[in-house]
Amino acid sequence: MTFTPDPDDAATLAERLRERRMTAQREAARILSRPPYRASLRERMAHLQEAAEVYDLDERTDVYGNGVVAALEERVAGLLGTEAAAFFPTGTMAQQIALRCWAGRTGNPAVAVHPLAHLEVHERDAFSQLSGLRPVHLTDEHRLPTPQEVREAPEPFGTLALELPLRDAGFLLPSWDELTATVAAARERDAVVHFDGARLWESTTHFGRPLEEIAGLADSVYVSLYKSLDGLSGAVLAGPESLIAEAGVWRHRYGGMLFHQFPAALTALAGLDRELPRLPEYVAHARVVADALQEGFAEAGVPWFRVHPRVPHTHEFQFWLPYDPDTLAEAAVRQAEETGTFLFASPWDRRGPGVSYTEVSVRAAGLDWDAADVKAAVADFVARLPHGAAD
């Protein structure tokens, strides 16, 4: 079934398109990624039951962070090679508390952070509004700051916060040498280093290093339990024992000591067992998909497009086309509705004048796609676009 746009009600159109996209994600026979958060409540309950297999259910339930939650904290600390770790209900809370603690220890409320970082774009100025901290931007380029930019910052800062990968710039990571040099430059300025590692789990392929060596560069690390691991929710802050103890005090003050947290803990433990070992496979196949997109759009005669970065750093990357977001979203959803194949399942957003982008994620569902499958889906998608670019 196709949908005929009504130009008189843009808000209603946007909501209908969103609902169509969500339905298509659930019903698509072929899709590159099928994360659990798009599932029904029944499916999520089944996922929780499956996760129960990773832990002794005859143990008493957790109360304010003991039991299975403490086991999760110990597991993550071991994986990241840190002295301790603490579970938080959200990554936003974990990061605010980490930065607050470091500011108290360094005596400097300035945080060097990229303007595209999650801390700046997606947390409603939380670290400045809640803790009185102040951002310092080292670069406006769509990449992580360079060691030279860290050294030449015109004002001192107490903490350098690096989002690895930098999601809004295209899930970008620096090279290993660049990262180690950037961290060293921060140390030269007597600053501590915090990694916003919401997606750090999938960075090992790009860096060619184990998790503990990557995390070992920083003074503290936050990791998400649901973005890559398929957990229900939650985050972990890892670092020195003294920092984590102080963070626990602030977690209580911020209202983060939930009475029971076992659903998030169980699904996170399951993710560490089941999804974490597969992430390198997803990254490798994302590069196959990216190559096929590049070749498919070129063969379809599309005059301009962009896979960004050209070789994905993780299992997620951006794809750009010179059309307005609504045109591309409609074509993508209509393809899924009419063929059962959902090539571009994420929303489309404006990247700049005349250019829109979407995020492409490759996970278990996408491993069944070979290059020929991707190219066939590209040809069908391009056939649904209007002739010539439009804005």
TrEMBL record:
Q: Which GO terms fall under molecular function for this chain's record?
A: L-allo-threonine aldolase activity
Cofactor(s), by name: pyridoxal 5'-phosphate
Q: Which Pfam families match?
A: Beta_elim_lyase (PF01212)
Q: Give the Aromatic amino acid beta-eliminating lyase/threonine aldolase domain ranges.
A: 42-295
Q: What keywords does the record list, in alphabetical order?
A: Pyridoxal phosphate
**Is the Ion transport keyword given for this protein?**
no
Gene Ontology CC terms? cytosol
Superkingdom to which the source organism belongs: Bacteria
Homology family = Belongs to the threonine aldolase family.
Does the entry feature the keyword Lipid metabolism, yes or no?
no
The positions making up the signal sequence are none
Membrane-spanning segments: none
Which Gene Ontology BP terms does the record give? Answer: glycine biosynthetic process; L-threonine catabolic process
Protein name (record): Threonine aldolase
